[in-house]
Every structure is written in C-alpha cells, then in structure tokens.
Amino acid sequence: MYRSVLVFRVTTKEVNGKDAQLLDRLVFSILTTLSRPRRSLVVNVRGPADVQAAFAFAEQTGVRVIIKNSGHDSLGRSSGPNTLAIRTTTLKNLTYIPEFVPEGCNHVAPRPAAAVGAGVIFQESYPFAEAHNISLPGGACPTVSPGGGYTLGGGHGMMVNNYGLGADRALQFKIVTPTGEFLTANECQNTDLWFALRGGGGGTFGVVLETVQLALPRNPVQMIQIQDFDNTDENTRAYMKIVLEHTKEWALQGWGGFVQLNEFQYINAIISPEEAIEAMKPLTDWAQTVDATIIQKTHDSYVTYWQEFLFPVDNPTGLPFAVASRLIPADNFETDEKREELLNATLEAAAGHDAWFGFATTPFKYGANKNTSATPAWRNALWHAIVEDFWNFDTTSGQQQQILQNLSSSIDAYRKITPGSGAYLNEADINEPNFSESFWGSNYDRLVSIKDKYDPNHLLDCWRPRNANQAGLMEKESWGTPLELLWENICHCDSDIVRLHCRAMCPDIQKEWNEISSLRSGAKTTSIDGFTLSMPALIAVARYCIPTAISEDAGVKERVEASADFVVRMSEPGAKGSMYGVNTGVGASDRTALQRVILKNLTSGILPIETAGNDNYLSSHHDSSLLLPESWSRGAMLLRLNTLLRGHSGCRWIVIERLHALLANNIIPSPPLRQSISASGDLAPLGYIASALTDEVVVPVWSGKGTDRKRTTSIEARKAHGIESIIYGPKEALAIVNGTGPSCAVGALALHDANILALTAQLTTAMAIEALNGSPETYDPFIHDIARPHPGQIEVAVNGRHLLKGSTFARMHDESDPAQKLRQDRYGLRTAPQWIGPHLEELTSARATIEIEMNSTTDNPIIDLENERNLGGGNFQGTSIALVMEKVRIGLQHLGKLVHAQFVELTSPHMNRGLPPDLAAWEPSLDFGVKTMDVATAAYLSELSFLGNTVTNHVQNAEQHNQAVNSLALISARYTFHAIQVLYMLYSNLIWALCQALDLRAMISIFFKRLESEIKASFVNIGLSESAHAALTKHIYDQARVRFGETSQMDSSTRFTELLRPLVTDVLDFLAKEGEGVSSTKFDALEWRTTLASQLGKIYREVRSQYYENGSAEGMMGNTVHLYRYVRKDLGVPIRKGGDIDTEGVDVQLSRIYRAFERGGIIEPVLKCFKQ
C-alpha cells in the first residue's frame, strides 16, 4: 500500500500574519476537498507564521497534525494517514555563537554555542563544527536532526557519557505552540516548556524551529574496535563476560560506544592513547587469543572518527525495521551473579533477531540533571540495550505484527531483571507496557500538566501503545503509525478507533458538542477577531444565544481603522483612482448612490403585516413562513462582524461596535425569508441587518426577553437599549450588505444538524441489525480496512462494531440453525457502511469549506492595506456554500431512503425474522401496529426525495444581466433545512419502530426459553433414551422457531395449533426411526399437539403480559442501549401494547422524539452510544 502526498508552499507575509493565514486556509481547503484515502497534506515551513497558519487550520477543521523531520521514528510519532504534516526539514540555519547568553538571562555567564535550525542533520552539523574548531556531538545516523526529535526525546550518542544527553546540552529553543504562540524557552523564560522540551518527546509540545546547543571543545578521540572473531557460543560468552565485568569501570573512565555479540567499538575523548590501551587490555588480550581484528587509533576529533567508522553506513530511505529496548542500570553489572543473569538475559533477548546492541551511550559519568525531562533511568544506566528486526516490503501484515510481538516478548528478558528502570522513547517497543513510567518516570505527571498548558486542545496528541491504561502524553488519541501494519493494527483495535476515524473522516461531533456545551454553560465567551471563529461558536451564538465579545487584540482595531482611513482618502475629491461604491455607481446603475440609498433599495422584501379585513378569513399560509428564522439572522450578524474585523472592508470601528451592540442586546433584525440569490452576497437579508442601525430606514427586529419577546421596529428596540443610530460613511453600508454571512450561517447550522443525522444513521442501522437478528459480519474489518478501504466506509464499520459490542441480538450466520434462512442480510443492513460512508467524507469536505467561508472576506471591493490598493472581485459569490448544501441535501435523501428500507424490513412479516406484522404487540387481527406510520414514512420519503433535487441548476439572470450567474446559496441552504426537518420525521418514526421491535424481540427471546422447556417436557414419558430425548427436543424446538416466524400473522388463540401441525409428522418419523422400545401407543400425536398448543398459547400471553409490566430490552443490547433508554425513560415512550390498552396516542410520542431532534435533546444520548 502506498500513500499520496500533496506538498505545497504556504505564502505568508511577515507584515500581516493574519492575512497570511487566510491564504493558507484557502489553499488548505482546496487540498482537503481533493484529498482522498491515505493522502496527506504537507506544509514546508520557512518561519513561525507558516506553523501558526497550519495550527489555526487544524484547530478549525479537526485535521490531525504531525511534525515531519529527518531521521528515524520507531514509535510513529511523526506518521499518520490523512494528516497535515508540518515539515521542518527546510529550516537549515546554522550559526556559531562564541559567547551565547540565553535571552533574558542577564545573570548567566556566556558560553560557546551553535544555533541549529530544526532541519539541519548531523551530516551538516558535524562538518560545520569542524570548520569552527568546536564539537557538537550527537548520534551516529547522518540523517538525524539534532534540532528535532533527537534532542527533544533525550538524544544519546557515543560522547554522552562525558558530556550528557543531547537534551542536557540544549540551552534554548524557539518554538511555536499549538495555540499559535511563538515562544523562546530557556532557563530564564518559559522554564516549564524548556524543561519539557529537554527530553519530553518530539512532536508533543509544539514545533521547534531552532535549538541552541552548547558547543564543546574539539578534543582528540581514542577509539577501539574488535571484530571478526569466530562467533561460537564459547567465544561469545567469554567475550561478553569480559565486557560486562569492565563496563562500569570503562564508563567511569569516560568511554562510550556500542557492543554487539560479534563486535566491540568504544571511544573516549578525555584520556590519552596510553591510558586507552591500558584500559582495554583485558579485552585486547582475549581478542588476540581468538585471532580477532583489533583496531586502536587516535582521531583528531569525534567527527573524523565518525566519518571513518560510522558515516559510511548507507541505509535506504524508508528502511522497514522495528525495535524494542531497555535501559540497563549499573546495579546489574555489580556482581558475578548479576552479570551472569544479565548475560543470560542478553542472549535470550538477542536470540532470533536481526540485530542486538548494548549501547554504552548513557550519561552515567555525566550524572543527573534536574532540568531535563527524559526518564531519570538514563542517569544510572550503563547500557541502552536494543533488539531490531527487519522485513521486506512485501511482508504481510500478519507477519509484521508477529515480528513486533516477538520483539516485545524478547525484551521482557531485560524487564524481568530491571524493575523500576525505563526505556528510550525514541527507540522503543511500540507495545511498551507501563509506557508512562518507562519513558518519563517521575517526570510524567509534570509533563502532562505542561502538555495541557501549551496544547490545551491536544492538536499534537500521538499514537499510544495498545492496552495501555494510563492517561498521558501518548494516550490522548490513537492514530500516528510508523508503518502500514500499525495502521491495520489500529483499525482492528475497536477500543481505540472511534475518535480516530471521527476526526479523520468527519467532523469531530463529540468535540464540537463539548465546545457548544462549554459555551452554553458560561465557561467561556466567544471572542470575534476575524480569523478564528469556529463552527461550535457560531452554533452556540446563533442557536443558544450565548454572549460574544470583540477581540481586545490591539492589532484587530488597528487593521479596521487603517482600512476605514483608506476609504476616506479614496472618497476625497482629487483622490487617485476609483473605488467601487465610493466614487462610482453601484451594480448596473450609471449614477452615484449614497449609502442610505443602497439600504432603501435593498429593503424590498415581503414581510407579514397586520391587515384589516374579514376576521373569519383563514389564511393558507403562516406568517412565519415569510421570515428568516431568528437563529439564522443571529448567525448572519455574527459572521458579518467577523468579516468586518478582518480589516479588508473599510468600516469604522464605531460601526462594528454598534452592530455588535445589537447582537449583545439580542436585537435581531427580521428579514424576509426570500429575496436573495447569493451572488452579490445575500444583499437583502444583510440590507435589513445594516438598516437596523440607521434612523433613515425602519426595519422589523426581534427584541425583549422570554414571553415579552416580540417583533418591533429597529428604532424602538435601539432606543430601549440606548444604542445610538449610525450615519454610514463611504462604503460602510456596502461593506455590510455585500457578503455571504446569511447563507454561510444557515449552511453551518444545517451542517451541524446533518452531522448528527449521519451519526444517527449509523446508530439506527446497528439497532436495526439487533432488532432483525442481523449479522455483525456487515462490519467485519477485512471487508472495509483491507478489501475496500474508503475512509468513510471504514469509519462506519468501526463504529458499527463498537455499537454492537455486547449485543446478544446480533449474531453471525449459523448454517446449522434452520431459523436462519438468509445467508446474508438484505442491502438495507449489509451495505450500510458503503451507503453511509461516502457521505461522511462529503461532510468532512463540507466542514472545511464552511469554516473557511466563516473566516473569509466576502464583500466587494476589498482593501489590500499592505499594498495600498482596493480590489474589485467576486468573493461574495456563494457557490462554495451552495454546492456544499447541494451535496449535503443529496446525502440526507440517501439517509432517508435507508430509513425507509429498514422500516419496511422491520414491519414486514416476510422479512423481519419472526416479528409480528407491523410490529403489532397485541393480537394481529385486532392491532394495526405501525401500518399508518408506514404510510407516513413513505410520504416523508417522497417529499425528501423531491427536496433532494438540486437548486443551483435553476439560476436566472438578475439585475439587468449584471448578476448573470448567481449561486442561490441561501435558497439551497433553506431547502437543506427543509430536508433536515423531513428527515427528523423519518428518524422519529424509525426510532419509535426500532424500540418497539427490540422490545418484541426481547419478549420473543424470553418466550423461546419457555418454549424449549415445554417441548422437552412433552417428550418425557414416551420411552426415549436421554440422547434421543435431547435430539428430538432440539429438532422440534428448531422447527418450532421456524414455524413461529411463519405464523406471526395469526392470533395466539390459533397460532400454536397451526404451528405444531406439521411438526407432528416430524415427531412420528423420529419415533419410527428409534425402533423397538418406543411404541407409537406411548405417543398420542393429537393429544400432544392439542395439549402443547394450549400450553404454549397460555405461556405466550403470560410472557407478553409480564413484559408489558416491567420488560426491557436493555440487557440484550450493545452500546446502542443509550438511545433506547433515552426514548423509553427520558422521553417516556413505552412499548406500544396494542388493542385498547394504551392511553396515549402514537402521534404524541412521535412528536416528542421529533422535538428531541429539533431542540437538540437527542444529541447527548446519540453521542453516548459512540463514546468509548
């Protein structure tokens, strides 16, 4: 399997970072819309603005973020399908600073240092150090970046024993945090972040752009290499015993290096050649006895040694290998017994693997450093022991998984003898048990709090080992993987997957709802700044009336006022050039128009008015059908404010303040529902909003609280709240009325509701599988993850597996069960992942489009302050929103069709596997069940199917052909809301029917247990052996269940006589085959049928009555139970008993379910079903 990667450059402007973010998000949107499975987006970073833009985009869209650099990454922290990769390999700055003082550290003595860009690799930093006569020691691999994950994860190497880990030598970091802050972290400022970055893990706390490293003296290096001896068991043990005996002594002398079972290579930069020879004599003496190759040499520097002995290693890109490791404490080298134990553990760990290393690359001699966050286990360790395995690119997923498991099992040999130690997180087992203790030890809790501080929304959460049970740095989300096999592992790990796919394929509804709930609770206020408005904030403001505040950022006001000043200059006599709507006409007219004329012309819609006339006249239309709903108007006001704050529109600050005052005081203009074609923006509704601030045009508004809220005039409402009117200056009215705010607001609200319906579709499908005794095979991961891996399809399947977890209703097909006649479920169940999945992908694309539109400049003309110019364009053309709404509406129709298919299958006795016709709980001859509801469902689907037609192919010329093409976005969004309303009705019917069906299925299950007992008892006294008795009971019970389904349309008074009629022959045939000992005189077939039928009828009615009193399907359901419980308990919709037993009409119950959709009450129980 391969992944496609889209690489692009983000054009940022240092002068105006916010404007740069706009362009970035526009580019991102195009790529997100085009992205398909396993395609990633990559930002090539050149400065902090690029990273800030990437994080802003990720925050708004929910796309997962990874940080890409060079080197190797065994835990997959820098990998993940369908992600936004922030690539820092372009940051190649390298600067030598002879006397470096960390910023803000006036008390710190100067030290030699080097500023290293995040993209610099050892192959570049080592020659640089040589050229400046310093040493910047690091690792062996030439492609590893000292300014990236190497230092951030700790950083080991052959010089570490004397000079400390890479993290110990990091003096300062330049970093962009996920909240968008560009910070300096050192021992004097942001000290907590400095601590975290010195070993807490790469890609965790932000994007490091530059690291300042301590420069060391360039000293000669003594080295020794021993290899090429006969690697017999005897030689290996003798060699390793010498090594283990002297390891601690060598460490104290300043040696560092690595040990293999057939090679030894150490270096030392603090002793003389003579001392080096003497120190290694025990090993060289033995080596001579086995004719090993011995090299002892003095190098001018670490770099010259590295170039001769390490650099020639040439590994291909993407080498498929995995590792597991353990830090081995000095205590394990202390006595003969412990060394023998360690040797045996080493041989056990190394057995069967491609490579084993004992890296003597720990800071044992260097000692402790309280200001680094790498695991304290480093400080007392003498070895970083590691095992490695490789595979081919065609190695199967199963084989790869086995390799990983073998590695983890092998390193257990070390874990057993090193309790309390740890592991190096940059080269660790992906299945590391107790990973928080292993990777960070006592630093873990502090790191978690720092993580929460600098990444509060967890944009940089990484993949965690499976089966881990602590919350922390690697457990917030499950996603990033180093290899395709890990992707497949995760896809099969149901406990980790739902949020993975919800974030990857569709908007994270749980996160969105949590944000809305937080805003509703008053925990936070929505701040408007023109660039960071989110969908949850818009929904909370528009639908739940939560308060807003204009950003206090001084830069926001400066931009706004600068653009207003620009307009004033353009409007003055003698100004150079022209500006549309300021010193030109408007639209197709040939005369200059004042701002108030614009507004008077735009307030031309049809509104409800009080009329005198015949009081007996009953209108066929409701006045509310003429008005834009309040929530839509609130959303439009919010979006218009957000656009004006971007500083591209030319409005004075006072205009923005007054418009915000209307929103803050809940004075909401009430524009006509119709009139807009969404071409020059939504001129008409925005005209009413703009007019609400003037005294020259009077428009209707909503004002007041609670029951006192009413429609009044804008002048009266403003007067009541002390809001002064505005006399618009040049371009200001035009700036408000040109824009896509209304259509975008309606689109955002519709998309939110559509997302909930998409989750509901998955949930009710799982409930239908339960109610119909369907098969969970529908969701088998091989079908979706391997055979046809469309991301939306994968998500539906994963969610389905979770929803059915624990259900006794859903069951795999059993060939031996005669009651299971269908080998496969019908399409309404079996192909649901393939039917729903593509719409989840469309919803993902829709969200990206809407959120970009929310934070865009959509009026005309717009002002480019940096270049002192005004531009006439078409950003008010709402086609992006229109097409999103078209696709969403088509998707809603598809969900409606699925509802109807499942409803019919539930109610038809020919398809519902033994449920009564029309789900009638009483006697079928006296109970119509859901027959009328079935008709209503067909009616709803017919209307929904009509609404599924496109709007945008009905465009007409407008405004003397000036607006010859127009998007009709608001019309399309309105029809989408109409479709949502009808789909709510469909789901109200389906959910009611599903709860009824599940209760009936549970009741039948109880009856079947009694049925089997009665059949068994009926054959007690006819002379059968125990085995024959059991065989006959099973056969008749199986056939009775088949007949139960075939007789579901009969009343219980005659049903069981008819049920047993053909089974008499089966009993007689069985007895005849038994031969002598079983006389037909002992079995009276007529009496058996008559007696058993009477008893079964009595039991059936008894079970039914008892279930009516206190029955529940909860104990037999999977994670779908939360919706069932909500309907039965919270909404108070009981099982429909039928006949004349029920006291409440079905219409009232359906209306409660519908209202739960309409008011959002159903969201919590739906989300609870998906919660892990």
UniProtKB/TrEMBL annotation:
GO terms for biological process: L-phenylalanine catabolic process. The keyword 4Fe-4S does not apply. GO terms for cellular component: cytoplasm. Residues 35-218 form the FAD-binding PCMH-type domain. PROSITE patterns: FAD_PCMH. GO terms for molecular function: ammonia-lyase activity; FAD binding; oxidoreductase activity. The keyword Lyase applies. Keywords: Lyase. Belongs to the PAL/histidase family. Belongs to the oxygen-dependent FAD-linked oxidoreductase family. This is FAD-binding PCMH-type domain-containing protein. It comes from Tetrapyrgos nigripes. The lineage of its organism: Eukaryota, Fungi, Dikarya, Basidiomycota, Agaricomycotina.
